[in-house]
Amino acid sequence: MSALLSSLRDLNELIKIPLVELSLPALRRMSLAEYAAFSENIAALIAADQQVDLFEFALQKMLRRHLEPRFKPVPRPAVRYSRLSELSRGCSTVLSALAHAGQDTIKAAQAAFQRGAKELEPEEGCLRFVALAECTFSSLESALNDLAQATGSLKKTFLDACAQTVAADGRLRPREAELLRAIADSLDCPMPPLVT
Asked: pTM higher than 0.85, yes or no?
C-alpha cells in the first residue's frame, strides 16, 4: 500500500484530474452502499489535514457532478441568467481565483485577470479584481453554482475568458489546470482547447 501511495504522490500534477475522469465509468458501477462508503472516505481524506487545496476542490466538484445523479435524484439547474451583469460578482471571483492560481505576483495576477475580463466586457465594466483572501472555496462554490444557471452561450463565453486568464503568461500550472477543469465541469462545458 505504501508503494502505491508513493507512486501516486510522484504523479505529474497535470494528470491527476484526467486519471479521475478515466475512473468515472468504473465508479458509476458502484452499489448505493459502496457509493455511500466511497463518499465518506473521500470526505475524510480531504478533511484529514484540515484544509482543502485546489485538487481536492476540483475532485469534490467532479465526483459530485458525475456520480451523485447516478445514486440519487439531482435536479438540473434551471437557466436563470442571460446577461453578464447578473453574474458580475461570481465572474470576478472565479477569474480572480484563476489569476491568483497562475501568477506569482499581484501585478501579474491583475494582468491575467484583465486579459480574461476583456473577453467578457470589451469596454470598462462591472468586473473587478478580487483579493486572494476573498477567493475562498465557499465563494468559488457559490459563484460556480450561479454560473451553472447561465445560458449555454454565456457559459461558453465565460469559459473562454477563463482560458484567456490561464493563458496570460503563456504557461499552464497544475493549480490553474485543476481549477479550470473544475470550472468547466461545474458548467457542464467541454474544456477549452488550451488544456484538453
From this structure: no
